[in-house]
Amino acid sequence: MFRANVSHAQDDLFSSVNQLPPDKKKKLIASKYWHFYELIFCHIDETLFSCLYSDKGSRPNAPINTMVASLILKHQFGWTFEALFEHIDFDLLTRAALGLRTLESTPFAPSTLFDFQRRLFAHQLLTGENLFEQVFDGLTSAQLQELKLKTSIQRTDSVMLASNIRDYSRLQLLIEVVLRLHRILSEADKAAVQEVFAPYLKQSSSKYLYRLERAAIPDELSTLGHIYHTLYQTFQSFYGDTEVFAMFERVYIEHFRVTDETITVIAGNELSGKILQSPDDPEATYRKKRGGSSTGFVLNAVETAHPDNPVNLLVDVTVEPNTTDDSVVLNGRLEALLRKTPDLDELHTDGGYTSDDNDKALNAAGIAQIQTAVRGHTRNVEFTMTPMDETTYQVACPFQTVTSQPSRKRLKACFDLNMCAGCAHASLCPAQERKACRTFYFTPEDALRHARYTRITTLPRERRTIRSNVEATIREFVSRLDRHTVSVRGLFKTALFAFSRAMAVNFGRIFRYQCRIAREACV
Description:
By secondary structure, the protein is of the alpha+beta class. The protein has helices at 22-30, 32-39, 64-77, 81-90, 92-97, 110-127, 131-147, 170-184, 187-192, 194-201, 205-210, 217-239, 243-255, 326-340, 356-365, 417-421, 444-455, 470-478, 491-522, and strands at 153-162, 256-259, 262-265, 285-289, 292-304, 314-321, 346-349, 368-371, 384-387, 393-396, 401-403, 405-406, 411-416, 432-433, 437-442. Helix 8 (170-184) runs antiparallel to helix 13 (243-255). The protein starts with 21 loop residues before the first helix and ends with a helix.
């Protein structure tokens, strides 16, 4: 049964805070932990989580605002769960941040917190809603209003987060999945295929590979192909509805090709980054980017960036498989961005966020995308294409301006040959020379793309470098991570980390801003 936690709001004469000497109580009230209690804990909307619990009379839930705030603190400081509970039990500052006014009790057991996360995950699977995202959105909306921050200008960037999984080679992964299938078989089924499993049961997959000659790997892959085929045909009808067999089937399809009972090993260069990387995290994907590689997910963050703002806050965070291109992430989050910040009209990105689809969507939404790095080919001689109406453009080269005309598949601009004859750029001009004129062909997509390329040059110089500061924000997400590796597995738990860190980052900025205002007031 759902019950809100309001006990923290009831002042207790004998609370641990009131038992402190005046000077120490003053230091506690001025600490970031007390500000966390006031800015975050007190504004967590517990009713969002009522759907996780029965509406019938039963044992009430553990305090939700305390559990949510605990997870935020855990990810803010990079604590393990063991460290988190040590702080909850023995650290007066942590207890103050969580609204705990006495030292007698622990608000919940570790099993309760783990069950809470399982309920969150089950709710997302059922409804598609991440309740932690709703907490983040609610807190951020209130903070933007309270601080009167402008959201019309924003910036975005992404970072790859590695899942907390073992790094498997292809052969080791295939063997490991076979071993995990063996564990779920009945004793009778194990005995029936004992010879198939025998070579791999004597040691772990890593030790088996250690004794394997490098030259023998192709033959071993071929042997495993026949083993996978045999096991699939033998057990699909009996174990096909189990999670482990579904993983086995996925690996079988991803690594082997069967044609007329001939089993072929799919070449390594044909494998996608979306194939299973680890049996411990089926959602993690593999990607190479800028000379590095990662197995896991990509975190994308959007924050306010208006020069008039005294402090800027994160307004949107999302986590996707790391094979998802930045431009696809932006396209998928545009609707949410506009819902949260409807006055957005200028978005600063790098070249990775650009695409024809985004040009159309952003243009329709009235958002100017400011690109700081050009992605793809650029022309030696630039043509501007300014829309006059839905089908007509004013097209200008360095020396002429004409009105476009429709052609069979595209639009065209016809330039006077006499004026082109003396042009110093004639040899580099993208317009094609015809008998009557020089013709430049383009599409509406070309016009949008060119407008994006040149838009940054129309801004005041102080606004052209706005995007670079978002890279510092990205470092705040990964500053406590070892080689960008999160301490969790799976898309949901990685998203939980991302929203927790985002709320912690926003809190830290507001706290530092308030401290600065207080200092200036004392001068």
